[in-house]
Specification:
This protein has 296 residues and is an alpha/beta fold. The protein has 2 domains: 10-156, P-loop containing nucleotide triphosphate hydrolases (Rossmann fold, 3-Layer(aba) Sandwich), CATH 3.40.50; 167-293, Up-down Bundle (Zinc Finger, Delta Prime, domain 3), CATH 1.20.272.10. Helix content is 49%, strand content 8%. It has 11 helices and 5 strands; from the N terminus they run αβαβαβαβαβαααααα. The protein has helices at 17-29, 46-58, 83-93, 115-126, 146-150, 167-186, 195-201, 207-228, 242-248, 254-272, 277-293; strands at 35-39, 71-74, 103-107, 132-138, 153-156. The protein has a 5-stranded parallel sheet with strand order 2-3-4-1-5, with helices on both faces. Helix 4 (115-126) links the parallel strand 3 (103-107) and strand 4 (132-138). Helix 3 runs parallel beside helix 4, helix 8 (207-228) runs antiparallel to helix 10 (254-272) and helix 10 (254-272) packs antiparallel against helix 11. The radius of gyration is 20 Å and the shape is elongated.
Length: 296
């Protein structure tokens, strides 16, 4: 077991310089949103940054947060965050902070909220009480209600560049990969309600960007197929996502994955001929969802 000290200051956190600069600026200007959505791949330090930020808001140390009277930590009971947990937050939301100006509620993973809990949290954010700041942490932001996302300031985390790509390209590829993994997670939900917020988020993207996203989509599907046949070497941009990918295998089979990749490749060819990007992407996701559910 590693004895490495958990970072407790901004300076001790490796990477995420742009995110940290943005958060520090919020604190310096005392302009704190009612809710922040920390979104990015699993295992890259979102929780550590959130704890340091919460500690700065509450004027304490990160290791003392669990005992702080103005800190509220919410994690799943079993596999989900339950409505009772959010109702408890709602109960205390009208109370004045004990020690300072703020209370901080850190909720992780936000995508684990059951539907009634998500709706209850939405009601709080529709009329946010003064002095209560939510930090929602998730690797799958698109699995949240679009109305929840719209009421939180998005803070995007990406994996530090590997050195093989310029930093800007690495951040772009990581964001596209996050999108692909989010969609695979959404496929495990019944119905297609998740599709429309996703398409809204993709509104206005040109064909070149859609092509880049589909490239990552194909790579993630390929890695799911690799896991289905017993492991092997994952794609170059996904070697550290094995655990997250294993969760996404769901009802996929090798024939289904092969067909889904073929669909994506055909979509990419059509886009290279200047087909309508939005219609092609929507058709791709609907047909892939049908494959996942058992279609041909």
């Amino acid at each position: 077991m590693s004895n490495a000290k958990r970072p407790t200051t901004w300076e001790e956190i490796l990477g995420h310089a742009a995110v940290i600069a943005r958060l520090r600026r919020m604190l310096e200007l005392d302009r704190l949103p009612h809710a922040l959505l920390f979104a990015g791949p699993s295992g890259i330090g979102k929780r550590i940054v959130a704890e340091v930020f919460a500690a700065r808001v509450l004027q304490t140390e990160p290791e003392l947060l669990p005992a702080h009277p103005d800190f509220l930590g919410v994690t799943p009971e079993g596999s989900q965050i339950r409505i009772g947990q959010i109702r408890e937050i709602q109960r205390v939301s009208g109370l004045a902070p004990v020690r300072g100006r703020y209370r901080v509620c850190l909720l992780e993973p936000a995508d684990a909220m059951e539907a009634p809990a998500a709706n209850s949290l939405l009601k709080i954010l529709e009329e946010p009480p003064d002095g209560l700041i939510f930090i929602l942490i998730t690797a799958f932001p698109h699995s949240l209600l679009s109305t929840l996302r719209s009421r939180a300031a998005m803070v995007r985390f990406v994996r530090p560049p590997s050195g093989l790509l310029p930093a800007e390209d690495a951040e772009t590829a990581a964001a596209d990969r996050e999108w692909a993994m989010t969609i695979l997670s959404n496929l495990q939900q019944p119905g297609l309600e998740w599709l429309w917020p996703v398409m809204a988020d993709m509104e206005g993207l040109d064909n070149a960007k859609i092509l880049a996203v589909i490239k990552q989509w194909i790579g993630v599907l390929r890695d799911v197929g690799v896991l289905l046949v017993g492991g092997g070497e994952l794609a170059a941009f996904n070697p550290d996502n094995r655990g997250a990918l294993a969760i996404l295998t769901g009802r996929w089979t090798v024939p289904k994955v092969t067909a889904a990749i073929a669909l994506a490749e055909e979509t990419r060819r059509q886009l290279q001929r200047n087909a309508n990007a939005r219609l092609m992407l929507e058709a791709l996701l609907i047909r892939t969802a049908d494959l996942y559910e058992g279609g041909n």
